[in-house]
Amino acid sequence: MRIVAGRHRGRSLCAPSGMDVRPTSDRARQAVFNILENHGWLPEGNLVLGAVVADVFCGTGALGLEALSRGAEKAFFIDSAPQALAACKGNVSLLHEEVRARLFPSTVPQLPAAPEACGLVFLDPPYLSGLIPPALAALEKAGWLAPDAVVVAEVAAREDLDVGQGWERLDRRRYGAAAVFFLRRRQP
């Protein structure tokens, strides 16, 4: 597993052993970021450049670190698993991104107040967990979501995702065993 593009392109990332952490594949990450940087469904251009990013259920931190590599301003990493946070912290250190990255050891229902609202959020919970709708509600309640936030949510390919009326589904893509949904908060 490595950073696909940007200033850290080609740098390897560490992952904890075992099956508890399931990093998004390099191929899927490349495709997701190509969409975020070159989409055709929003008037804004590149959604990564200059973004404040939250990588929730961060695992190794690969999604947030890829965003930093591609020009995001800062990234917040959230996970409750000690081995995932240790891997993420090690990867942040490996890439010398301590100034632009901040880790939060937290479960989704008990999220701390956001230090800043995020315009781009990655949600990659364990497959078939049903955690995306409650994560969106918790992020909203704790102030993590900017008014025009875009959320990239990864689920198992056979899962559908119903996030309620407050969200617009911009796109859905399938990458092997994963399905990726691109969502945007509906404006009132």
Give structural notes.
The chain is α/β, with parallel strands linked by helices. The protein has one domain: Rossmann fold (3-Layer(aba) Sandwich), CATH 3.40.50.150. The chain contains 4 helices and 7 strands; from the N terminus they run H-E-H-E-H-E-E-H-E-E-E. The chain has a 7-stranded mixed beta sheet with strand order 3-2-1-4-5-7-6, with helices on both faces. The chain is globular, with a radius of gyration of 15 Å. The model has no long low-confidence stretch (mean pLDDT 90).
Q: Any chance you could write out the topology, listing elements then pairs?
A:
Layout: H1 26-38, E1 52-56, H2 62-69, E2 74-79, H3 82-94, E3 101-105, E4 118-123, H4 132-141, E5 145-156, E6 167-175, E7 178-185
Parallel strand pairs: 1-2, 1-4, 2-3, 4-5
Antiparallel strand pairs: 5-7, 6-7
Q: What would you say about this model in short?
A:
With 188 residues, the chain is an alpha/beta fold. It has helices at 26-38, 62-69, 82-94, 132-141; strands at residues 52-56, 74-79, 101-105, 118-123, 145-156, 167-175, 178-185.
- The number of helical elements comes to 4
List the helices and strands in order: HEHEHEEHEEE
pLDDT averaged residue by residue = 90
CATH class: Alpha Beta
Largest β sheet strand count, sense and barrel closure: 7 strands, mixed
Global structural class: alpha/beta
Strand proportion: 25-35%
| Distance between the ends | 40 Å
Helix content: 10-25%
Kindly give the count of domains.
1
Rounded to an integer in angstroms, the radius of gyration calculated over CA atoms is: 15 Å
- Low-pLDDT parts are none
CATH superfamily placement: Vaccinia Virus protein VP39
CATH architecture: 3-Layer(aba) Sandwich
Record the strand order, biggest sheet. 3-2-1-4-5-7-6
CATH topology category name: Rossmann fold
Overall morphology: globular
Strand segment count: 7
